[in-house]
Amino acid sequence: MSKDASGGPFAFPDETQIPEQFRLDGPVVCDRVLVNGELRHWDGPMREVLSPVCMRTPEGPKQRLLGRYPLMGRADALEALGAAVKAYDHGRGRWPTMSVRQRIGHMDQFVHRMRAIREEVVRLLMWEIGKTYPDAAKEFDRTADYIRDTMDALRDLDRVSSRFTIAQGIVGQIRRGPLGVALCMGPYNYPLNETFTFLIPALIMGNTVLFKPPRVGVLLHFPFLEAFRDSFPPGVVNTLFGRGEEVVHPLMATGKVDVLAFIGSSRVADSLKKQHPTPHRLRSVLGLEAKNAAIILKDADLEQAVSESVLGALSYNGQRCTALKILWVHKDLVDAFLQKLTAAVSAIKCGMPWEAGVGITPMPDGERVKYQVELVEDALAKGARVVNPGGGTVGCTFFSPAILYPVDASMRVYHEEQFGPVIPVASFEDIETPVRYVIDSPYGQQVSIFGSDPEVIGRLVDPLVNQVCRVNINSQCQRGPDTFPFCGRKDSAEGTLSVSDALRVFSIRTVVAAKVNEANKALIEDIVRDHNSSFISTDFIL
Description:
This protein folds into 2 domains: about 15-285, Aldehyde Dehydrogenase, Chain A, domain 1 (3-Layer(aba) Sandwich); about 290-485, 3-Layer(aba) Sandwich (Aldehyde Dehydrogenase, Chain A, domain 2). Helices cover about 35% and strands about 25% of the residues. The protein has a 7-stranded mixed beta sheet, with helices on both faces. α2 (about 100-115) runs antiparallel to α4 and α4 (about 135-160) runs parallel beside α5.
């Protein structure tokens, strides 16, 4: 495997080669934090943000300085927590007691404010995490659509809840109520979309929120701060910036966090949950590791299997929890499959995020590049080879996709989630081999099956749906559409997300009930008629 610290075949630009529409005017200095409805100036320590995009210099390629953001400490974090706790006020605050119609109105205002910052956020997504410009734009637009869909789903849910139920002489109204203070932390690969798939349903269900961006992907959230401040009551949205051990662990130790919404590793999730003094009271919504396998049967459509495998393994450099992370190919098909897979991977364009048709971009975290190198070197030492020419070449923040074959259980990449552009391929003769791999895996998110025999695929589906939470037939693993449930078994997740599921996971069913008698009927009718309660209401949202 070749390494080229100067960048080698990867064409890093100088400043003059950056198209005008994608340029940033100097470092982005983010010197404000949102706490208790105030955008406060930050004059404390800051952390520098380096772009995965390197600039060509006489000394070789160097990562461009993108900007700086606050490094909050323990006292700052506890102050933000205090603001969220005060705004919730044991469920008595303005936001948790507000009607659904009113909360939707605030969220609608926020979405309207989002439109004005679209291009700024998309550029920052591109520069900060190395996502292609079309993919960055898609992430923003998908997030805006998700918010709209969430508001529609809540309207539907509230319509069902706007009626009374009478059973066994008891009249009741059943609605969903908030849980309290939610700590929301998203991942670097979808720092906007997946952070907001926590943040938005948590908010709209009446919770107050502490929101911490991932370590990589912070700057792009700063354009939202004014919109949060202006769209929601004070203390409902509060920001946390800094190192997790300094700002997150102290919050969990207070026991005042009611919901932990986190996407990352199970090791970190377990550590955070252990900090909570009463973990049985903590609602956890977790998206964790995955090692999604593709099983390519001998009667699979070869072109389709290769096309979907490339998309599944290498979209956004393979940095997706839903990526295909190991390919099991029937031995009768493996040689032809590898030939076509190599051709498809070799045809992918490596380049800068703004370049048209680019498929592989710089990786946002230098440690991930080193990790890919370690996995490839381990596999090579144990008998695998890099099938595709130039696979595994490193140039500063670039890592050229590497197809590894044959992969076996002695290798780290067989077991570990690579979260990068390494494609391990293993062959099988007995279908029990890949099925047993899925069964023995500690992860249980998704699997893909490629084939054409309905009897064989049908028999495979039945056991696999009891091992993973989504079985994809002749298609790559993926999260969308957002109306489908997104969850995992074993070590891959806790809780279920989709547009409608997220509303439920960030809330709890609550009942107001009374015996049916004339006095109670009159009392409830008066409450409804005079709008004395947001909960006891028959208002119907169109």
